[in-house]
Structure formats: structure tokens, C-alpha cells
Amino acid sequence: MSNRLRPRLTFANVVSCLALFVALGGSAYAVKQLPKNSVGTKQIKKNAVTKKKVRKNAINGPKVKNNSLTGADIKLSKLGTVPSAKNATTASTANLANSIPPAEPTHLVGAPGEPGFEGGSSNVGGGETVNLRPVGFFKDHEGIVHLQGFAEVGTGAPIPRIFTLPPGYRPGSGTVLYQLALCFPGAEPCIKDEPGEDEQIHSLVLVAGGNVDLEGAPLSGGVISGPNRSVSLDGISFRAES
Fold first, then answer.
1. What residues form DSSP beta bridges with 238?
2. pLDDT given at position 40
3. What is the mean pLDDT of residues 140-167?
4. What angle do CA 52, 53, 59 make, to 5 degrees?
5. pLDDT category, 45, cuts 50, 70, 90?
6. By C-alpha distance, which of 128, 203, 192 is closest to 162?
């Protein structure tokens, strides 16, 4: 049998077997006897370290490159209030409140420098124990115009106008607003919603924007209602557009 193997044993075969043995033996030795601190960046394959291989909470702030994180990397809803800026929210709210202009003072109809009553209209006087607000208007910080007061509507021909709003305090150009207002009858009746003791009485109040004419009569800026009655303008509001 040795005679059969001898012709196949060559120097090349022996060297190959020894090389294989050394290679296998060397690998086994390297895995079992890997020295401490012997693996460096050159030994780690690119992209070999995945997030599953990184221990939880292993990476802290000093390990993150400065100015490298962007908004896409941070979930803003999870951020709390910065400790050193605990008063920032209060300060921001205060600054916002201070930046909002207050509502302007009320422009009282008939006062010096203000629009006057027209067509015999006037304020409704209060009684001994009741004070009724005078007719007026003002604009709030959002540009909403508010009317106020109880008006005694005159006979004004052809249209009974209480007063005229100045430009900048009117509805949109070419627009007329129709508002149902509380009414106390005078020489002319009010509108009755329901008959009987609990009937509600109202009158239509028209507020005209700029560039409004009705059958040749200019209405621009007019606050108008039925003649010879008392109407409340409280609660009428609209955005100033002309």
C-alpha cells in the first residue's frame, strides 16, 4: 500500500498540506488569543457596525460631532423646556401681548371732530335709573368695527340716516350689511316677530360700504334705519374694508 501512495507524495503536495494546516491553525489561534486593544479602524469593515450592534445609551453628547445634527435628526415634540430658559415661554407670551395694539377709543357721534347725527337723529336719553350708551363706533386691533349705543332715528329724507361712518370704518366697497336690531316704536311701528305678550320688536339697520348708491341716493358709509323709532346699534360689527 505504501508503494501505491509513494508515487503521489510529491514535494508540492506536502508543502500545500503544511500551508493549509498553518493557515487553519493560525486562524484558530487568532480568534482564541486575540490580544486586548488589537482591533483598530483598519480591521473593521466599512458599514460593518449597525445600530443593532451599538449598545443602548452607549453614544452620548461628547461622541456626537459638533453642529452635525439637523432638524431631521431631532423629534421636536419630544423636546422639553430648556432649563436655562424656563421663563422664555412667559416672556414670549408677554412680548406678544405687548405687541398687540389695544382697541382705539370710541368715536362718539356728535362729539367735536367726529361724524355728526343726520336727519334729526340723536342719542336716546336714559331714565332716572338707566344710562344708555351714546351712539358711537370703534375699531379693534383686528380691524373689526363695532357700533354701539341707542339711537333716536329722525325722519331724514329720502333715507333716514343716523350718521355716516368715515372711510376706513366701512364694509367693503359696494356692500350693504343688513342687521336686525332691537327697536322701540315711536311715530312709526317696529317689526313684530311674534304676536302676543312675548312679541319681539326689531328694526332693520343698514350699514353701507363705499361706492353705494340706491336709486340715485348716495349711501356710502351710511348707518340707516326706519324713521321715527329708537334702535339699538349694540352688537353690530363687521370688518373694515373701505
1. 145
2. 73
3. 92
4. 95
5. confident
6. 203
Q: What is the DSSP letter of 73?
A: G
Cα–Cα distance for residue pair 120/49, rounded to 1 Å: 91
Q: Parallel, antiparallel, or unpaired: how do β-strands 217-218 and 136-139 relate?
A: unpaired
Residues 6+ apart with CB under 8 A from 143: 239, 240
Distance of alpha carbon 165 from alpha carbon 221, whole angstroms? 5
Amino acid present at 7: P
149-185 core/surface letters (b: 16 or more CB in 10 A; e: else): bbbbbbebeebbbbbbbeeebbbbeebebebebbbee
Instruction: Look at the block and give the residue holding cell 337723529.
Output: 121
Which residues in 69-78 are b (16+ Cβ under 10 Å) and which e?
Answer: eeeeeeeeee
